[in-house]
């Protein structure tokens, strides 16, 4: 009983953390049309920064805030030269940036402990003396509250005049420029805010796993985020949260099936893993071929048909 | 220093061979194909399979690797890309779909061969001086270099002097105009995939002659490949060749200047950013800015 309860709590928490991650991506792509394929980099930067600072004795909240700010600032570093680029160049540049960040984390062993990763660092509610299950529940609530806060802020922002400018940039940047909007500044803010949100997700992920290591920040994480976004419908904040729950719900429902069924067929765990990513790939292709606006996206609001 | 330069020329030649296809596909189909690196991996593993299974020498496996790369590329054209073109899918949908194709190809391969690195089984080779210069290359490195240069020159002849090459260039200049001039666009697109996918696969075999193979190889090569075609100006085959050599040389020579080997990919990326800032049009290409 308690193990299956733990399982459900874990799935909900993971889905929530990813929902936050994708809300950031959705602000950048869904609302502003910025093609960020290096989103995982900002997750990694904030996670490492906050863990290292808290190990250096910073209070947890201050370390997390610093991590989030750093993720936002790092996005400006790449955004300043790259945001003027055409979509395809931007996609390549952001992937390159994310891989560079990961390579640096992997190799600056003195700072980050490299591929070994970092175990044992301060996490929230440690001093409360909770049982393991109690901690899981408390942390799930923390993540849900964080997601709700991000959602409400984004809903507010994207419906403000500021948000309407972002949508205008997405639809036709030249027209927005002609109306006297400094689109570059708007895009930089959108990128920075979205990346800071990814940073928050990264910090929560670090707490959830209670270890961090560069393998958690492979490009696949970004692609998973994209899949959740197109699944839920880019441009809809509610949609991407539902998308995340759907994605992880499906995963967790099929996982017991996988482990018993496929392993019984004589497949190794590695093969099952490869098969799963293979299916993610096929799913992305099929979705783009038949429903580029996503499962819940409205075609007139946004499709990827441009 | 000269030795690093020589290694860079060898790697650069291989990158150039693989990058030609990426840039041709971009210029003719307007597709930024993130699955291109996996054609490289596919070619390399075709040769590995023939080498380990049947004892073939890697060089002898080149023709079959070309066929494998071309076949998969054409297959994907029929299953995915043609349909997406007909539906007038936008740039973003195409990019996301190509990432999906890349994930599927790579993990399809991992499913069968596992994730660990492997090398060709062949006698150990001794590096010998090359052309009397103060640098040494193994026979395989020498072969990879010469084969790449021959292939690159072959592509040049094809584009410059054959009807197919001229049509391909016409199509990349102006698709609609080429279409109303009676060019069979679908046929040329298939040829583009054959050449692009096949060359990438050849690049993979040549790469495997100099380094160990692993399923993520193509993905890791994709960034330098993009760096090369952006440096050369996206869409320009000649730019891809020049960019390929440049990136290969920059990556290898950076080791001489004390940059750790692990940072090779990052060096290629920094070179790409520098190129975008300094030559936004690339060395030979169209504007990269909106």
Please name the defining characteristics of this protein:
heterodimer; A: 306 residues; mainly alpha; two-stranded antiparallel ribbon; 12 helices; 2 strands; 75% helix; 1% strand; globular; B: 290 residues; 11 helices
Q: How would you concisely characterize the structure shown here?
A:
The complex is a heterodimer of chains A (306) and B (290). Chain A is mostly helical and 306 residues long.
Shape of chain B: globular
Structural class by helix and strand composition of chain A: mainly alpha
Specify the helix fraction band of chain A.
over 70%
| Low-confidence regions of chain A | none
Largest interface: A-B, 47 and 50 residues
Instruction: Report the portion of residues of chain B in β strands.
Output: under 5%
- The helix/strand order of chain A is HHHHHEHHHHEHHH
Topology summary:
The complex is a heterodimer of chains A (306) and B (290).
Chain A (H helix, E strand, L loop, with lengths): L1 H30 L7 H17 L4 H23 L4 H21 L1 H4 L5 E2 L12 H27 L2 H11 L1 H6 L4 H27 L1 E2 L6 H14 L4 H28 L4 H22 L16
Antiparallel strand pairs in A: 1-2
Helix pairs in contact in A: 1-6, 1-9, 1-10, 1-11, 2-3, 2-4, 2-9, 3-9, 7-9, 10-11
Chain B lengths: L1 H28 L6 H19 L7 H25 L4 H23 L14 E2 L6 E2 L1 H23 L1 H11 L1 H6 L4 H26 L6 H16 L4 H20 L7 H15 L12
Antiparallel strand pairs in B: 1-2
